[in-house]
């Protein structure tokens, strides 16, 4: 081939590529013309529905009515399914459109501008679907292109008003979904969705009926979902009790399935009648149960369904059997599945292998499966999370080859032990992404169901979940979640506000990850317990209670500032999607956090306890006010009854009890210091509680002093440092019981440039107690607090030596007997032969964790091979002490992917032999309960630090997928706290 020919071929190839990528402008509406949407009346109902949704979206945006027709016009959007639309088939036969890339493919569609498709038509926007849903998704893709939110109705995202709509179309085939069946489970609907439907939206039915489900199904279509598990609580009549429900589902091309507790599309919760049917036990009453299954299969036969196989007991309980014998239970369950498949074969007249079926090993059923239950390989294995967002198991390599494949059932709403979370959406979206990425990697790609409770306020997580099911390739990295949220916020509220909204929501999610809002009372359920004692410390590490109050107040202030600046037509949407969730989360936190401060101060006799009681009550009142607005005023009462602030009427939702302090003495100044539970008793000479914790030059410590009013009246105070290197946030003030100015928190820090320098040594002294620092390294002074005729002196000690070893040191450093490390801030990250450590952004206590990837790498427990082959994290740190250290590693409490794998890492300091750390919990143990309440699993190992000075903490991967959040090296100085102290790092 000559160089000229090669050059010509290259030019032609480039031209063809450019031509294939060329965009075409298509006029939907402008000042002089508008399109019409052409379908074929012989096509399926969902195509007509989607066409009318698109027409309505165009009208809501422009005010111009778009006709949906069965006849060709001059300017058309032509939409149809292959073999169901005569116009589409005509274009195929005339070779004006190609369908090779979509024909016979699940839910695929193409969108293209076709020139001169028919006589008298200059061009047409043609949507071709491989099947009925493909066509519907293609039509609704045009809605997305013109700027319509999927939440247009469900969150009142009112379309932007436009004079014209011209879209730029790149001719292409849209690939099929990443997950075959994708949808939601409407669960725990008692307090919102059902009440709203019965009392507001569908009063003619008095329940969730076909009108309500039509709106749910429209949302699912807009979100490119295709499956529903209908509501199933006893507050709601069973889905099939309303004959129109199943027809509406089919009209919208929605596949109907049922939950793990509803075999064969039956709702045992409300359809089983003990008086007429007897006991719901297969070992003694199988014929009656089979009759129920048969009746439902016959009724649902004309429609598209997925049948849940197996059996559990009533009301989400274990299956009842005669005796507690696992082998017999397994055998009985196998017989049940065999009988169910026989019913399907007989009634549907199909080979069961061709009928979509699911088996959901939820709770005790997982145990049966693990004990050897034989499941036909064409049934989809649907793995579940532990109800708190952590998947319990995935398919082993050999199971991944099953013809039925696998799926996932995941919660963002849950009723049960150790505590419900039914009100607010508090499942971290990056955690959900991580667990779903893992599911996808382990080939769970056939069915994904999200238990989203009442839909509201789970809107964002629903969309994220379903977007992942549609195109998992777009979510390769954790950062994709923040990009997705930013794009979501920009779509709903404009580019100007998108970044700030995203940042607020990410911080809200981070705080909820540390403790979900519904868990803030430290109570539990089943049995329901009263509110308990918080694990948050109020006198160590800057006061965890106050720190959390301020963190929530910060995002609350940002949302309050944003609200007035949101476009008027999007304010209601902002309220639903951002404002109410953030304000409600903040206020339920503040309600309990202030009540903890009330209790703490009351025990010390502080009048400020009364102020904190008032603040807690105000937070409760604000929740009531906002919830009332949501229900009664928002969007002219459209959502009346949808939102409740107290599902199940649990203690966490009630107003706390308070302790009020009566001032029985003359006004006087009181002081309380960080590090001490009791206030300063200045009447006792040489009180142990008159010195602040020691200030460390290398960690730039700062501590608080609370000045507060004792007694009734007024007191003026001054704070006078005795050294110019002591800095105080305020040095004077007035406390007054009438004005409500009862307490003031001061922050003490050090001007290190002015502190006298300690001795110049090569290294730190060996083995001393950090609290008993030799005089040559410590500088002492004090602060005098003066009020009227009283002076209280508070000691200030600083640790300010000069060690040559630390002159250019950058790394973690001991402070008060511990070293605190955020896992993502490693000194070195060494890749292994097959894996590496990677940072996930947006999850964990600090907002980042470090994970061992890829997840498919085999586990390794041989310590020599671990050191030789596995990825390694190293953290340089420096201690002033030596001896035995307790290395506490905090991980995200995930579970082993499958048998033979675990949730482990290996830890060592310096050249010590690594010790394997295992974060796995068993079943629903007490350890598991505490882990999911805290979203943390903390395990510790003992290590020897043989000398003061420089050291290296090493963490190796043992099992891929393990996620490390924080590490605390405790040499005996750490005081109990909910979270580890902030990291001790020297730059």
SSE order and pairing:
Elements lengths: L2 H19 L1 E7 L6 E3 L6 H18 L5 E2 L6 E6 L4 H8 L15 E7 L7 E7 L2 H14 L19 E6 L1 E3 L6 E5 L7 H9 L8 H13 L4 E3 L13 H9 L3 E2 L11 H4 L2 H4 L4 H19 L6 E3 L16 H23 L8 E3 L4 H7 L9 E5 L21 E6 L17 H13 L5 E5 L7 H12 L8 H15 L1 H20 L29 H19 L8 H33 L4 H25 L35 E6 L21 E2 L6 E8 L3 E8 L4 E3 L3 E5 L6 E8 L9 E2 L16 E10 L2 E10 L2 E2 L7 E3 L4 E5 L5 E3 L5 E6 L6 E6 L9 H7 L2 E8 L3 E9 L12 E6 L5 E4 L7 H9 L2 E9 L3 E9 L5 E8 L14 E2 L1
Parallel strand pairs: 2-3, 2-4, 4-6, 9-10, 9-16, 10-11, 12-13, 13-14, 14-15, 15-16, 18-26, 24-27, 28-33
Antiparallel strand pairs: 1-7, 5-6, 5-8, 17-19, 19-23, 20-22, 20-25, 21-23, 25-26, 28-40, 29-39, 30-33, 31-32, 32-39, 33-38, 34-37, 34-39, 35-36, 35-38
Helix pairs in contact: 2-4, 6-7, 10-11, 13-14, 15-16, 16-17, 17-18, 18-19
CATH architecture field of the largest domain: Alpha-Beta Barrel
Mean pLDDT value? 93
Give unreliable regions as ranges: 1-20, 760-775
Distance between the ends: 63 Å
The number of domains: 5
Say what the CATH topology of the largest domain is. TIM Barrel
Give a written overview of the molecule:
This protein is α/β, with parallel strands linked by helices. It folds into 5 domains: 22-174, 2-Layer Sandwich (Chitobiase, domain 2), CATH 3.30.379; 181-475, Glycosyl hydrolase family 115 (TIM Barrel); 513-653, Methane Monooxygenase Hydroxylase, Chain G, domain 1; 668-805, Immunoglobulin-like, CATH 2.60.40; 811-986, Jelly Rolls. The chain has 21 helices and 40 strands. The chain has an 8-stranded parallel beta sheet with strand order 11-10-9-16-15-14-13-12, covered by helices on one side. It starts with a helix and ends with a strand. One of its GO terms (molecular function) is hydrolase activity. Residues 1-20 form the signal peptide. Keywords: Hydrolase, Signal.
